[in-house]
Amino acid sequence: MLYFIKLEMKYARRSGLQTQAKLKAAIKDLQVNSTPTISEFATWCLTNYSEIAFHSVRALADIANVNANTVVRFSKELGFKGYEDLRQNVQSTLRTTQTAYSKRADALIDRDENDLFSELKESYTLNSNTLFQPSTRSAIVDAANCIRSAEKVFTVGVRSSYSIAHYFSYVGSMAFENITRAPAEPGAIMDQLAKARESDVLVAISFSYYSAEIVRAAEIARAKRMKVIAITDSYSSPLTIDAAHVIEFPIEGPQYMPTLSAAFMAVELILAALASHSSNASGNIQKFEEQILKYGGYIS
After folding, report:
1. Suppose 42 and one of 31, 75, 201, 296 were both cysteines; which one would form an S-S bond, judging by CB atoms 3.0 to 4.6 Å apart?
2. Structural domain that includes position 222
3. Residues 161 and 289 in one domain
4. pLDDT at 7 over 60
5. What pLDDT score was predicted for residue 119?
6. Parallel, antiparallel, or unpaired: how do β-strands 227-232 and 245-248 relate?
7. Same domain for 71 and 172?
8. Is 31 within 8 Å of 39 (Cβ atoms)?
9. HSE (CB half, 13 Å, CA atoms) of 179?
10. Is residue 246 one of the residues assigned to a domain?
11. 234: which DSSP letter?
12. What does residue 254 show for φ and ψ, rounded to 5 degrees?
């Protein structure tokens, strides 16, 4: 698996498509499949990814409490000639990820349609491949288990992330009685969390730029000792702080707004994992469908 990720990274450098998601996927692969020393440093790098961009090899080794040789070996195992190449790549991915939406739109002006569609196709493929890495699959299974054991599950997302929160909670509530519909009206997030208890779970969804309402919701949930499942674009996201589970979805691509296609896939995977271990999901969905049909909600 790491071999193919390295190939994708090399292609990305040639094509100018630098992605944080692919690099983090490679780091996660080292976390699982490398030596204990490299694995431990990979874990640190996932949590402190942006630090790589701002420090020399010795300075990074000092703050990570590892040997400088470990940093160099780590860089080479990722497919780079040395640490400086890794550092420049991380700097590039941070610049790409944090570009303002308006500037992303500017970059689309006068783009050749064939070239644009080709890049879109490539980014969708790479985002999908990144999402289906073994480490993400494990995180999705763990998140599903957490949701299954919760008394109530609250899901929050605003602006473009609301579509993901709504989909997850709407489809989820058909099959699972503990999943609560995502709040839409002003103030409803606080109203829901005011009633939440330690036995409940918060599914918090946001990406850069991170919505203040969702970051605050995660803070409230942690204060209530609830478990937080963060569905977000980066391990450096404020939603990941003390989160029980983190599902990182890649957002790379030339669109003027970061793509949410992988986020929708992530919540669909969670729902599928939930249904695969539920004896009640099918019956609950059938009852829901029958009621909608009975009262004319569907036109057949």
Report:
1. 31
2. 151-294
3. yes
4. no
5. 87
6. parallel
7. no
8. yes
9. 26
10. yes
11. -
12. -85, 0
